[in-house]
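In response to reviewer comment 3 from the previous cycle, which asked for concrete evidence that the modeling workflow produces usable outputs, we include below a single protein chain processed end to end. The sequence was submitted unchanged, and the resulting structure tokens are shown without manual editing.
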Amino acid sequence: MVSTAKRTLDMSLLLGPDDEVPVAGRFSYRSDRPYEVEVAFISRGVTAATWVFARELLLGGVHGEVGEGDVRVWPQTAASGRRRVHIELFSDDSVCELSVRAPELTAWLEQTAAIVPPGEEDRYLELDTHLARLLAGKC
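The workflow returned the following structure tokens.
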């Protein structure tokens, strides 16, 4: 049986030092894909983009700067004490920086950890199923 954790979080798309746009991030996690999270970015009711990347990046990014390549994540605390987590996404032709409230992201990550504890992902990965799908051309 596949267990899931889904939550839509309010995020900000950072356009400049003092310019941001509200965006919803629909965070999804599945026990049959234990290493990854999917985040659909929704603006004005339309999914603008969907990214899949390692859950480990979010887990680490709550506490310190992590990532290289296409995804970087780091925490930031404002002078007001408000804690946020920044997610920077790189594609071939652009860079996008978003932020989300750290307590909300942490609460969702705790849900994923209840489904598959960090460090135990390999116990939940069904390699035979994935290999059969790959060989059948269904990936």
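The helical segments are 55-61, 102-115, 127-135. We consider this sufficient to address the reviewer's concern, and the full set will be provided in the supplementary archive.
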